[in-house]
Write a structure and sequence with these properties.
Layout lengths: L1 H6 L1 E2 L2 E2 H35 L2 H6 L1 H8 L3 H12 L7 H31 L13 H26 L4 H18 L1 H16 L7 E4 L2 E8 L3 E6 L4 E5 H5 L3 E3 L6 E9 L5 H16 L4 E11 L4 E9 L4 H21 L19 H15 L3
Helix pairs in contact: 2-4, 2-5, 4-6, 5-6, 6-7, 7-9, 11-12
Length: 373
């Protein structure tokens, strides 16, 4: 049987040599997979026993083991097993380039995983994850672009391609691409500005133009905002930064100015009672700091009152609840004092002279009678 397999050839090698190479590749892949599995299991158990500081220091090793791909190990095993075969120089060059590319891909995966670990590492101050997803996304995208571009250039250089002229052509082409993609590059730098300057962050409630909503995602080109109306707004970063953006999530408190009118005819004693009573109503509210309250002006429709207070939170619903309690208490107060709110109204006084109406009729009839027919 072995002699018969030796007599059969494929690509200049006996079938037996091919079988031996395949067996060696499978054995090598099996050993590598077993070692990788043992490392994963050992690191998992070790992570449970180590203290937090030591476990954090061992995380890069976890990342390297976790990002090692089985398909890369299998292909590398096949490439290495090809050493048992007698191949042409062209085939050997192809296998060498393939092996170089596989090793490069695995190294690139390791580097990207370590960069991701570094970007998402917890803060040394409080141990919490760093909360700047915009900058993390930009740095992740830039790092991955650099790593994979470097890998492609190394593969081309290993294959014998003159990358000097290629890099020069990329520089000239980059200028043309930059001119053609001015809008995209503007959004990219606007995204970088959002990440560095932090006018708003993911999860904060903002207003721009006539729209309000919660920021859900800040990307390389656009920002996604969940509007109060229910739809998702997608706006280019450059367009968003051109507008006045109000960040309500960073309000330490909310200043409220409100007023009402009482009709003319209310006595000065009643006015004083209303002002003092409304002040006490505002002071009695929870999470509220009273500022001022006055009978502010003599308006066109009545006596005008103005009151100012601060809600010690930025929540809009809380502000509306406080204002509603104040409004209801003012209504009860005016009912107790037998006062009403002043509403816009105009009084029209008409004067009528009965003697003028018949005279007007007689003059009109006289003019009509004098008109020739």
């Amino acid at each position: 049987m072995l002699e018969r397999l030796n007599q059969l050839e494929w690509m200049g090698n006996p079938v037996a040599s091919w079988l031996i190479a395949l067996a060696a590749a499978l054995v090598g892949f099996g050993v590598a997979s077993m070692v990788l599995g043992l490392l994963r299991s050992h690191l998992r158990h070790l992570d449970e026993r180590l203290p937090e500081a030591a476990a954090r220091a061992a995380r890069p090793l976890h990342v390297l083991v976790r990002t090692t791909r089985n398909w890369v190990l299998l292909l590398l095993s096949l490439v290495l097993a090809a050493e048992f075969l007698d191949l042409s120089r062209r085939a050997e060059a192809i296998l060498y380039n393939l092996g170089f590319a596989l090793v490069g891909v695995q190294v690139a995966l390791w580097i990207n995983a370590l960069i991701e670990l570094w970007l998402t590492r917890p803060s040394a101050a409080d141990g919490k994850p760093r909360s700047n997803p915009v900058m993390i996304g930009i740095l992740r995208w830039t790092a991955q672009l650099f790593v994979w571009t470097t890998l492609v250039m190394a593969m081309l250089a290993n294959a014998g391609v003159d990358i000097t002229a290629f890099v020069a052509s990329l520089g000239i082409g980059g200028v043309a691409v930059a001119l053609a993609l001015q809008s995209l590059l503007g959004d990219l730098f606007s995204s970088l500005s959002i990440g560095l300057d932090k006018p708003f962050e993911v999860g904060e409630f903002i207003a721009f133009g006539d729209d309000l909503g919660t920021v859900r995602h800040v990307g390389i080109k656009s920002t996604r905002i969940d509007s109060l109306r229910g739809e998702q707004l997608i706006i280019a970063n450059s367009k968003l930064l051109e507008q006045l953006v109000r960040n309500y999530s960073r309000m330490p408190h909310r200043r409220v100015v409100f007023g009402f009118r009482l009709p003319y005819g209310a006595t000065s004693e009643r006015v004083r009672q209303v002002v003092e009573a409304v002040k006490e109503i505002i002071r009695a509210q929870h999470d509220v700091r009273f500022d001022r309250g006055h009978q502010s002006a003599f308006g066109e429709y009545g006596l005008e009152f103005e009151f100012v207070y601060y809600v010690l939170a930025s929540d809009y619903t809380m502000y509306m609840d406080v204002q509603q309690r104040i409004n209801l208490a003012i209504i009860d107060l005016l009912e107790c004092l037998n006062l009403d709110f002043a509403v816009p109204a105009r009084h029209v006084r008409a004067e009528f002279d009965p003697a003028q109406r018949p005279r007007a009729r007689s003059e009109t009839s006289g003019r009509r009678a004098a008109t020739p027919t």
